[in-house]
Design goal:
Largest sheet: 7 strands, mixed
Low-confidence stretches: 1-27
Number of strands: 12
Strand content: 5-15%
Strand order of the largest sheet: 2-8-7-6-5-3-4
Mean pLDDT: 91
Helix content: 40-55%
Number of helices: 19
């Protein structure tokens, strides 16, 4: 379309309709006239971009319709397809997944022609159709689930404003909001955090844990930033054997090395054993090493265990160690009067990580790192880039970018700010309480079934809102972990994968499974942001899983007999 023709289309309102759809209301005629896009002097690409002003409005309509269907449990959680089938679906729709054209060579012009708005909208429709419906009441696969509508709206605003949270100059409102969100988090944690704190939002909890180890390392070895790792003390860090794998990655990234990340044993509930921690610290000292960091966990990934923070903190203070609490999953308990006892002692820690995108229902990603050591982030990370952080510009004291290890940083905190404003303290607490209550309800159903017919067995008593369990097919009953033979353990190990595969094929609930601590494969069901999940959903799901388990084991047995014949 020529610029002249496009100009007529825009004047007639075509491009403007997209903007009106996004705003939710049409502007007055005189306002529309004043706000019409300027076309004079644009290059051809600029004119084409104006034609795409309709696209966000069209996509927004599709997204709103999609969100309205998420509570429908009759809709499949996933329409499982092979990679080849997915590629073919998009290819047949005229919007192939590939960006490289057939036979394309190297260079910027490699075969991708401009696509129409209709084709782009079709791509969005297909993506929604074949993506996992993480907002379904039957999605229990990960430590996140349904995103709250307020958080989704906030994420759209973040995308539309498209700014960077490094200076007040380019993100004035977001900068002030982040400070207020950090202040709120500090008040919720309590203790010394309520009196003084520093922090920021990070691209994921793994990066929050990296920040903690990074700050601790530089605090323990002040010359590290200039000297480098060579020639300094041999620093060692300590984590639970149930900790998140991000600690191992962090040890590698900061140059500590995996040999200097010491794993501390946990008890039968998955909690770090304080006595084992102190023994490991004393042993490291006797070897001439410099202990500097302890990473405790609030809500371990599989079992949901809360480490004994009070006792760990006493050990850390006795030996001069940085105490960090990875509360990415279980930190939501801080919001609940009923469950915050799980976090007792975390308020004494040097730093804490919390992911509101998990239990609280903010959109991915929304991850906070907070420390009670004011100024340490800037002291450790500052590079004083002169083109960004000029001391003589307006409001330079509010710039936060120099205390991060990034340059570009999205205003992820806005998702939590708008969510908290929408739900209030009571609503935020209600979400956490509901997650814990659903886990308790399910655990009680499993205990009853264990007693009555042996169909279900808890692997561990629930911690946080994690429920770990086995389905025991009828021919394998009774199955009790404490008295099971190796043959029985080997048999039960095969059940969860068989059931999970069939659940995916049917588009039924998504639930993770794993084998840890010597236990054969078991299901781990997590209740995260479960506002739309009902007790009835759990009851019906267990009934379907039991029937599925019998069917799949019978098929596997028949296949084994055929193979042996």
């Amino acid at each position: 379309m020529s610029p002249t023709a496009l100009n007529g289309a825009v004047v007639n309102g075509n491009a403007l309709k997209g903007a009106e759809c996004i705003s939710g209301a049409a502007a007055a005629p005189e306002a529309r006239s004043a706000k019409r896009p300027r076309l004079e002097g644009f290059c051809e690409g600029g004119v084409a971009e104006l034609a795409r002003l309709e696209l966000p409005g069209e996509v927004a309509g599709k997204l709103c319709a999609y969100l309205a269907t998420l509570q429908d449990t009759a809709e499949p959680v996933i329409r499982l397809s092979s990679p080849e089938a997915l590629r073919e679906v998009f290819r047949e729709a005229g919007i192939a997944l590939e960006l490289l054209g057939p036979g394309a060579g190297a260079g910027p012009s490699s075969g991708q022609e401009p696509s129409s708005n209709d084709a782009l909208v079709k791509a969005v429709e297909l993506l929604l159709q074949y993506s996992v419906r993480t907002g379904s009441p039957l999605f229990f696969n990960q430590l996140y689930a349904r995103a709250d509508p307020a958080a989704i709206a906030a994420d759209w605003v973040v995308a539309a404003t498209n700014t960077n949270c490094f200076t007040y100059e380019v993100a004035p409102v977001f900068t002030l909001m982040e400070a207020e969100v950090m202040r709120k988090i500090a008040e919720v944690i309590g203790g010394e955090y309520a009196r003084s704190h520093d922090g920021l939002f990070c691209p994921g909890g793994s990066i929050s844990n990296l920040y903690a180890m990074h700050l601790a390392h530089h605090s323990a070895d002040p010359d590290l930033a200039t000297r480098g790792a060579s020639g300094g003390p041999r620093c060692v860090a300590f984590v639970s054997d149930q900790c998140h794998y991000s600690f191992l990655k962090s040890a590698r990234v900061i140059g500590l090395g995996s040999d200097n990340l010491i794993s501390v044993g946990s008890d039968s509930r998955g909690r770090m054993i304080p006595e084992a921690l102190e023994e490991a610290v004393l042993h490291a000292k006797s070897q001439g090493f410099k202990p500097f960091f302890v990473g405790a966990t609030a809500g371990t990934t599989v079992l949901g265990a809360y480490d004994p923070f009070d006792k760990i903190d006493t050990i850390c203070k006795r030996h001069g160690l940085w105490h960090h609490v990875d509360a990415c999953w279980g930190g939501g308990a801080l919001l609940s009067e009923r469950h915050r006892h799980n976090m007792l002692g975390a308020e004494k820690a040097d730093s804490l990580a919390w992911n509101p995108h998990k239990m609280s229902g903010a959109c991915l990603q929304c991850s906070a790192f907070i420390t009670r050591h004011v100024g340490l982030l800037a002291k450790t990370n500052s590079a004083k880039a002169a083109y960004l952080f000029q001391p003589d510009k307006l409001y330079s004291d509010l710039d936060v970018g120099d205390k991060t290890i990034q340059c570009g940083r999205k205003p992820d905190m806005f998702k939590l700010w708008l969510l908290w404003k929408a739900k209030g303290d009571v609503g935020m607490q209600r979400t956490v309480d509901h997650c814990f209550a659903l886990a308790a309800f399910m655990a009680e159903r499993l205990r009853e079934a264990s007693t009555s017919n042996g169909a279900w067995e808890l692997v561990y008593e629930p911690s946080c809102s994690n429920v770990c369990f086995w389905y025991v097919p009828e021919r394998m009953r009774p199955f009790k972990w404490e008295s099971a033979t190796q043959e029985q353990k080997d048999e039960i190990h095969k059940v969860a994968p068989l059931m999970k595969n069939e659940m995916q094929r049917r588009g039924d609930a998504l639930i993770g499974f794993q084998a840890i601590n010597g236990r054969p494969n078991f299901f781990r069901m997590v209740f995260a942001a479960a506002d739309t999940v009902r007790e009835e959903d759990i009851v019906l799901l267990l009934e379907r899983m039991a029937a599925m388990g019998e069917d799949e084991v019978a098929k596997a047995d028949a296949e084994a007999r055929r193979s042996a014949a």
